[in-house]
UniProtKB/TrEMBL annotation:
Gene3D superfamilies: 3.30.300.30, N-terminal domain of ligase-like (3.40.50.12780). The keyword Signal does not apply. It comes from Rugamonas brunnea. One of its GO terms (molecular function) is ATP binding. Keywords: ATP-binding, Nucleotide-binding. One of its GO terms (cellular component) is membrane. It comes from the Bacteria. This is AMP-binding protein. Transmembrane segments: none annotated. Residues 18-387 form the AMP-dependent synthetase/ligase domain. It catalyses: a long-chain fatty acid + ATP + CoA = a long-chain fatty acyl-CoA + AMP + diphosphate.
Length: 556
């Protein structure tokens, strides 16, 4: 028995098409500083034409159709077309390796693949089954598939307002695979729409707001807060062209709402420090009038001076980093959500926020902490389940419908939630004591020398931390004097960190990673979370030698 018809994201798109057809919805850079603006009428006409083409293919009802592309206007338009055609979407991270692309396409039973902007298509193409039909977006690499423009030109727009029921599948969201093979999270139209409505209302998102879309749309935060909220609220979405043009892309968009991840917030800060020494900036920010002007100047240089609300998520953000941005005048708030609740979990607000806390529950979200300190969530954005993994569904929910997040946390009386680690990341040393790495990593990551860190030491006499130094420092370590200075700073940091820890969690040493961790070398997920198993596997052969050196700072 089907659920009562509810308003869906498609209905919102039809409403914008009818009420504000000439309003620009999407702005796509095409190179050389040039852009193409797509109005609601233009977006919907292309979506209707592509939907008509998809219907003409005779695909099975409710087929799954995949998209492999960096963020671009046609990602949004294609998703609308897929929904109009009665199908569901499967977004794939644009940096994935061929084996993962093949896994997602085959596991999801995708019938067709849209290919868009990509940096490494010649390598990735090997992951696409030879028999799978492909359609190439206008900015796709050569020979990626049939031409989008040619196909839409050959079709008449699908008429009317093709509707989807709330309980129909809208999308499969594949997790980023930080702890193994990605899982396909199923979301229905009713829940993704309700989640986007609650988000848009909470952050007061409206038609005058501007977004920059650049985090992978395959990740639930970008999908929910940017794409789906923009469909509900009708705001203007700009896209980034490349890493090289990123600051110009931000300045073009002049975003009023801006989302990023901790690693990028840290990179922005380090970029500022390369121009203004931290101690000088700290001094200037402490002068009442000068401080305000300096904060505005720094934010203008980053292109963030129009931002009224900035968000950080996907991984813990060091409290000191949040406090630094707020001192500049940026309203940076931390949030918390996951693929399984369509990112509708916690958000910081003007009334309820604190560095180190991920906010309070969204309206309609219920929270409790169990005896293992695990955070349990019941959200209006709850998934339908894991695709082809019913055994995981049973494991993932309590008898009364709360999702077991796997995150450990604690709550203040006012509802603010602090995450203290992941259940699966807690490890035991040789002394039989359990160590939670995330809080220790937060202390380390707050240091200006460090870009990334990972605390480990399973079965060892004591825990240790692998650290990746900032890019600027890595280029200077050939100078023996500079290397000695850095080592002294690391020794001081280690002493400071250990002073804040109970004896059984104190680190025996810091190991400076020889190479930075990246998506390309398999040490980071597409959302830039560290892959612990991969990094630990790489370190295992050298670990005995590191412990044998009996040094507080080891150069790996």
């Amino acid at each position: 028995m089907k659920a009562t018809r509810t308003k869906t994201l498609l209905d919102y798109a039809y409403a914008h098409e009818q009420a504000t057809p000439g309003k620009v919805y999407l702005t796509q850079p095409i190179g050389g500083g040039q852009v193409i603006d797509y109005t609601w009428a233009q977006c919907m006409e292309q979506a209707r034409r592509m939907a008509a083409h998809l219907r003409s293919l005779g695909l099975p009802p409710a087929s799954h159709i995949a998209i492999l592309s960096k963020n671009c206007a046609h990602c949004f338009i294609a998703e609308l077309a897929i929904w109009m055609a009665g199908c569901a979407t499967v977004e794939i991270f644009p940096t994935e390796e061929p084996d993962t692309i093949r896994f997602v396409l085959e596991h999801s039973d995708s019938k067709l693949l849209f290919v868009g902007k990509l940096d490494n298509w010649s390598h990735q193409a090997g992951g696409v089954p030879a028999t799978m039909p492909r359609i190439a977006f206008p900015l796709a690499p050569a020979n990626a598939g049939e031409s989008w423009d040619a196909l839409v030109a050959a079709q008449s727009p699908l008429p009317g307002k093709p509707a989807r029921d709330g309980d129909e599948l809208a999308m499969l969201v594949y997790t980023s695979g930080s702890t193994g093979q990605p899982k396909g999270v199923m979301h229905c139209f009713a829940n993704v729409t309700r989640a986007a409505e609650i988000m848009a209302e909470t952050i007061d998102c409206g038609p005058d707001d501007r977004y920059l879309s650049y985090l992978p749309l395959a990740h639930v935060v970008e999908r929910s807060y940017i794409e789906c909220c923009s469909m509900v609220a009708g705001c203007h979405v700009y896209f980034a062209e490349s890493l090289e043009t990123f600051v110009d892309d931000i300045k073009r968009a002049r975003p009023t709402l801006f989302l990023s991840v901790p690693r990028l917030w840290l990179k922005f800060q380090l970029g500022v420090f390369e121009k203004i020494p931290p101690k000088l900036l700290d001094f200037l920010l402490g002068i009442p009038l000068v401080g305000k002007l300096m904060g505005h100047k720094v934010l203008s240089g980053l292109g963030l001076n129009h931002v009224r609300l900035a968000g950080s998520g996907s991984a813990p953000t060091p409290p000191e980093l949040i406090a630094w941005y707020r001192r500049l005048g940026l309203n940076l708030m931390e949030g918390y959500g996951m693929s399984e609740d369509f990112a509708l979990s916690h958000i910081s607000t003007a009334e309820h926020n604190a560095p180190g806390y991920v906010g309070i529950p969204f309206d309609g979200v219920e929270v409790r902490i169990n005896d293992d300190h695990e955070v349990l969530i019941k959200s209006p954005g709850r998934m339908v389940g894991y695709y082809k993994r019913p055994e995981l569904d049973a494991e993932s929910f309590t008898a009364d419908g709360f999702f077991r997040t796997g995150d450990q946390g604690e709550r203040r009386p006012d509802g603010l939630l602090k995450l203290t680690g992941r259940l699966k990341e807690v490890f035991k040393t040789a002394k039989g004591k359990y160590v939670a790495p995330a809080p220790i990593e937060n202390l380390i990551n707050a240091h200006p020398l460090v870009e990334q860190s990972m605390v480990t030491g399973v079965g060892q006499p004591a825990a240790y931390a692998l650290v990746v130094l900032t890019e600027h420092l890595r280029g200077q370590l050939g100078d023996p004097a500079e290397r000695m200075r850095v080592e002294q700073e690391l020794l001081t940091m280690l002493k400071d960190v250990n002073a804040q820890l109970p004896s059984y969690e104190r680190l025996q040493m810091l190991v400076v990673a020889h190479d930075p961790w990246s998506i390309e070398n398999g040490c980071l997920t597409p959302t830039m979370k560290i892959k612990r198993r991969q990094i630990e596997a790489q370190a295992s052969e050298r670990m005995a030698a590191w412990y044998g050196e009996q040094r507080a700072v080891v150069w790996g």
